[in-house]
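Exercise: predict the fold of this chain.
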Amino acid sequence: MPELLLGLDVGSTSVRTQVFDLEGRSLGTAGRRLRTRHPAPGHAEQDPEEVWEAARATIAEALSDAGRAASDLGAIGLATQRASVVVWERRTGRPVAPMLLWSDLRGIERADELREAGFLAPPLAAVCKLEAALDQVRDGRARASAGELCWGTIDSYVMHHLTGGAAHVTDLSNAWPTCYLDLADVRRWNERVIEHQGLPIGLFPTLCDSLGVLGHTAPDVLGAAVPIGASLADQQSGML
C-alpha cells in the first residue's frame, strides 16, 4: 500500500522536492535553480516549460534518492509562489508567453486604472498583469474567447502537466492573491472585473478548496496515479 508523501515546492528561485515517510522523516531530496530574465526595467519573467521540467526532474531525482517509485506515494503536496501569471494552450499545455513573476512591475499603470474603476488592484497582483501577458500573444484575446487558452498561477500550470492536461484548477489560497476573487463570495471569481477587462470566464481555472484532492497524476507522466493536494506551505512559498 502506498505510504510515502512527496512535497513539491515551486518557488521564485528554485524547485525543491522531498520524499517523506509517515513519521515525517526525509528519505530523498532534490532541487534545481530557476533562471529569471529581466527584459526591461521592472520586468521579471521565467520560462514556464523550464519550471515544469525542473519539477518533473526533481520528482524523479528525489524518488531515486529515496530508492522508491511513484507507486509508493500516497499523496503529493504542491506549494508554489503565489502571484505569478502563466498563459498556455489548453490542448497542448504549451505556454504561449513568458511567466510573469510576482515581482514584475508592469501592472502599475493598470492598477491605477482598475482602482479608479472601483476594483481592488494592488500592482503586483495578477489582476493588473494578466492582460499584459495575454496581449503578448498573437490574437491572444480572440484565442482566449475561442477557448484555446488557459491562464493560472504557476500551481495551475504545474497541475495541468502533472495530470496530463486533465485539470485546470487552483485552490482558494492561491486564487486569493490574484485579486480576481469576488469579495462578497470568495468561492467565486469576480465576474465584474473579468467582464470589465473583456476576458472570458472560461480562461480562468476552476476554484477548489485548499484542503483535499485537487487531481491525480497521469500514469504516463509520473508512472502512477497519485492524489495531489495544495500544501499549507503555499502560505510561505515563493519568499525564498
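Check your answer against the key: Residues 2 and 202 are 36 Å apart (CA to CA).
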